[in-house]
From TrEMBL:
Signal peptide segment: 1-27
Membrane recorded as keyword: yes
Keywords attached to this entry: Cell outer membrane, Membrane, Signal
Localisation per UniProt entry: Cell outer membrane
Species this protein is from: Pseudoalteromonas neustonica
SUPFAM superfamilies: Porins
Protein name as catalogued: TonB-dependent receptor plug domain-containing protein
Signal is among the record's keywords: yes
Domain TonB-dependent receptor plug: 65-150
Predominant location: membrane
Length: 907
């Protein structure tokens, strides 16, 4: 017990008393207190964080299986703006690409994400897992990460399950508004483009979208062929009109399609605005509303963020396995056969809104939630590519120049109904029932992306002009249009009953869980094909070269150029997919002899999935029946029905707990990986190809942990884990004609094991007018995957660490809370060990993403009870993202330092 402390009346005390100044009785009492030299008060032993964390710590203590809980106050303390950045503070978790969570060093496929217990779809084009940066921290009540499998969870469980639990209706009137702004040190200047959307909501203004005339032409002219060339247009139109329309008319029709496409994508270099955002939350609760028994409440929130990021990037291909880091230069090609330097500017707008309605009466609690999460990204980039073997270098007199302009809009819309019921009807008395129904849709749209690839000419090392001629071939002007829709309907019910005996307590539970999912992915490519004798002078200065994306904006330029618009459709780049899961489980939870707890059960899942790849030119509706024949569907289908078991034992004392757990689970290939469709993976940059013959991976999971809980709020834990994986899914790399391709396949076996430690402890209770304490976690682990000799292809190593696995992950925090409640500060450090980004081929070693040391600081000032001023400094060390192969840098990207300030008002 802490001693009683004497202290002077402070500003908060005076502020409280002033609220009552209009009431004489209170004012008189206030004056008497103020006139005293000092007052005596019992100081609470807990800090602000310990107080806020007590509820989630109690929940973790009471979990039957190994789990970590992070509450909203902890998220607020670290200054994390979304679920992804918050989760990297959890023991054993690391963040990849600012979106995906790796649990215990395992890739994102080994983590599952649910929203209030429900499966929701992913708006990511390349992965079925949800990019967690789409969930703003303002809607999150807590994040529950369960690392040991229990039968009431989906069996698709590898490293862990993340359950995002949103805020519910308040106990009283709540209104909070927060405004903020931030500055990044890499954002002084960046690229924008003429076709960029000025819509503050982050929606395309219609200038990029595929025109209706082009859609009509695709349906008219392709007709089982693969292009909209002069020849094809002439053949189709001549048959329709009953006479040859002639080459000139076919050319005119083709050029009219070229002129219908968006063509004004010239770049400009300008100063970028600071980031800005606003958040608002409003809620209330009403008792006996309209004469109805019970309580009705609502909670509405909206968050808007306008962000810019500008970064210099470098990527290269090694020329020799004997390359030495000490002799490498990005410009002299001592080590590299090819290099690319890029400057990319991205403009992100996030608009998120949610509405919760709740009704509670007796033992019944009903909640309805609507949520709309939108994240748009507008990108403009300039890249210069050198490859001396192809006479592409400043010394050889030419560089390859590429400009990219792209707008991507991702949206997740969710409608969720939930109920919790404690029954007291006759023989059902004491039965608990909870259920949920969730209907959600994720969409991604790239209404118009243009990549221009041309040449810069140099003389004596000095820029001369930007040009293109038809003899160079390639895709000098390449358009891409993408549409994705992912729909998930998910419902489930759980029923439990507790039985009490003299020396034991037994809970029996069971339920069902059902998922129906469909995904429709469509993409269209168009490119310009120039006559081999056609030559274009695009720019005479580097400043003028920024406008090459608008070179054909004038119709007269299209008419006077010998250029043909083609529909550039690969063999299969679209796919349809569907998935159904019917699951049932039964579980038990027995507490006996007061100190022992045994929990476990079994789950049955009937899993069905089909993924069909096609191209627009081959997918004629008239051939639909043939395309979807029984044999085709069977070949493209996965059908599994399995039982999955789990068992956990806990020994508890007042100050510590010891846990042991086992579970067998599955990791299934996602829809995109099963579709033999090519796409570019954003993490590795490699061309990636799906595999319809992938099999599911089965895991045996073992966990042990001891947890210590001190009377003063300190807590510690140390745990160990081991996972044995049969037929793990790995991305295997091959090389052909200088191009790398990742293709998914099943390796033979893999395992991962490690230890992890976590703590929250007070360092000093009375220093600088407050309490200092530290919190954090460390995970040390290792893994190995073994690939069969027949799968070697061009791979260098058949035994290696698993892709994405880090040998260590550490999160450290030094925290301060002032005794008067007016100041709060944290210094936060995060680091992960190197991890394989891509496997090496042709005797080159594996490519390793280097450790990234992140140091952040957050300070909050509370001048009154309802106002907060927060200052954040992120990435104070300024360390960049880097990838090394054979100890030589092959990829890097700037990571900005960021300074932000926010002000919030709540009443």
């Amino acid at each position: 017990m802490k001693h009683q402390k004497q202290f002077k009346t402070n500003l908060i005390t005076l502020s409280l008393l002033s609220l009552f100044s209009s009431f004489h009785s209170f004012a008189d009492q206030a004056q008497e207190i103020i006139n005293e030299d000092a007052i005596e008060e019992v100081v609470a032993t807990g800090t602000r964080l310990k107080g806020s964390a007590s509820a989630v710590i109690d929940e973790r203590k009471n979990q039957a299986f190994v789990a970590d809980i992070m509450g909203s106050e902890q998220i607020s303390r670290t200054g994390d703006s979304d679920a992804a950045s918050a989760l990297r503070r959890v023991t054993g978790l690391s963040l990849v690409n600012d979106k995906f969570i790796y649990v215990r060093g395992l890739g994102e496929r080994y983590s599952s994400v649910r929203l209030n217990g429900a499966v929701v779809p992913s708006p990511d084009l390349t992965r079925n897992v949800i990019p967690l940066d789409i969930f703003p921290s303002s809607i999150i009540e807590s994040l529950a990460v369960q690392k040991a499998y229990s039968p009431n969870m989906p069996a698709a469980f590898g490293g862990g399950d993340v359950n995002i639990r949103t805020k519910s209706i308040p106990n009283d009137t709540l209104f909070k508004v927060e405004i903020g702004a931030s500055y990044k040190d890499t954002n002084d200047e960046g690229y924008t483009y003429n076709g960029g959307s000025d819509d503050w909501l982050g929606k395309d203004d219609g200038t990029r979208a595929l025109p209706g005339s082009v859609k009509t032409a695709l349906n008219t002219y392709i007709n089982g062929l693969s292009d909209i060339s002069y020849r094809n247009i002439r053949d189709v139109e001549s048959k329709r009109q009953g006479a040859d329309i002639g080459q000139a008319a076919a050319i005119d029709l083709n050029k009219s399609l070229a002129k219908a496409l968006p063509r004004d994508f010239g770049l400009e270099k300008e100063s970028l605005n600071p980031d800005a955002g606003i958040k608002a939350v409003y809620g209330d609760r009403f008792d006996n509303l309209f004469g109805l028994d019970g309580s009705f409440g609502f909670l509405a929130s909206v968050a808007y963020e306008n962000e810019w990021s500008n970064a210099e990037k470098f990527s290269a291909v090694l020329s020799s396995v004997d390359a030495s880091e000490s002799s490498c230069s990005q410009d002299d090609f001592t080590c590299y056969s090819a290099t690319e330097k890029e400057v990319s500017t991205k403009h992100n707008i996030k608009l998120n809104s949610s509405l919760n309605l709740g009704y509670k009466i007796g033992g019944h609690d009903l909640t309805a939630t609507y949520m709309m999460l939108r994240d748009s990204e507008d990108e403009a980039s300039v890249a210069l590519y050198q490859e001396p073997s192809k006479s592409l270098s400043i010394d050889a007199g030419q560089l390859q120049r590429s400009h990219l302009t792209s707008f991507e809009e991702r949206e997740l819309e969710i409608l969720q109904l939930r109920g919790m019921h404690n029954l007291d009807w006759g023989f059902l008395e004491g039965v608990g029932v909870d259920w949920q129904y969730t209907d959600s849709t994720a969409t991604t749209s790239i209404p118009g992306e243009l990549k221009v690839t041309v040449r810069d000419e140099y003389l004596d090392g000095k820029y001369q002009r930007t040009f293109y001629n038809g003899s160079l071939g390639g895709n000098p002007y390449l358009y891409r249009f993408v549409e994705l829709e992912d729909d998930v309907e998910n419902w489930g019910v759980n029923v439990n009953k507790v039985f009490y005996f003299d020396n034991a307590e037994v809970e029996i539970a069971g339920g069902g869980y059902f998922v129906e999912k469909t995904r429709d992915y469509r993409t269209d490519f168009f490119n310009y094909r120039f006559n081999q004798t056609q030559s274009l002078d695009l720019a005479q200065s580097e400043e003028e070269a920024l406008s090459i994306g608008s070179f054909f904006a004038n119709d007269a330029v299209v008419d006077s150029t010998d250029v043909e618009l083609l529909f550039q459709e690969p063999t299969a780049d679209d796919y349809l997919a569907a998935q159904m899961i019917d699951a049932y489980y039964g579980s038990f939870d027995v507490t006996f002899a007061q100190d022992w707890r045994l929990s476990g059960g079994v789950r049955y899942e009937d899993f069905r999935q089909v993924a069909l790849a096609f191209s627009r030119s081959a997918f004629d509706p008239a051939l639909l029946a043939d395309k979807l024949s029984a044999d085709a569907i069977e070949q493209a289908s996965v059908m599994e029905d399995e039982y999955f078991t789990s068992l956990s034992m806990t020994y508890s004392q007042q100050s510590y707990q010891v846990r042991f757990g086992y579970g067998n689970t599955v990791v299934r290939p996602d829809l995109r990986e099963l579709s033999p469709v090519q796409f570019q993976d954003p993490l590795t940059g490699y061309r990636t190809l799906g595999n319809p013959f992938l099999e599911s991976s089965y895991l045996d999971n073992f966990d042990a942990r001891i947890e210590f809980y001190m009377d003063n709020g300190d807590n510690y834990s140390v745990g160990a884990f081991y996972k044995d994986i049969d037929k793990p899914i790995e991305a295997l790399l091959t090389e052909s004609d200088g191009r790398f391709t990742l293709q998914f396949d099943n390796a033979e076996t893999a395992y991962v094991y490690g230890i992890e430690a976590e703590w929250l402890t007070e360092l000093h209770s009375d220093l600088l007018g407050g309490a200092f304490f530290t919190s954090g976690n460390i995970t040390l682990s290792d893994s190995e995957v073994e690939i069969a000799e027949e799968q070697r292809g061009d791979l260098t190593n058949l035994k290696r660490r698993m892709t994405g696995h880090s040998k260590y992950v550490a999160n450290l925090q030094l925290n301060y809370d002032s005794h008067d409640g007016m100041h709060q500060a944290s210094v936060i450090y995060n680091v992960f060990g190197d991890r394989i980004l891509a496997a090496g081929v042709n005797n080159f070693d594996d490519a390793y993403e280097q450790p990234l040391n992140s140091l952040d600081m957050v300070y909050s000032y509370y001048p009154t009870f309802n106002t907060t001023l927060t200052l954040k400094v992120k990435n104070m060390l300024g360390q960049n993202f880097e990838v090394e192969q054979n100890d030589v840098l092959i990829r890097s990207q700037e990571t900005p330092r960021e300074l932000s300030v926010s002000f919030s008002y709540e009443f």
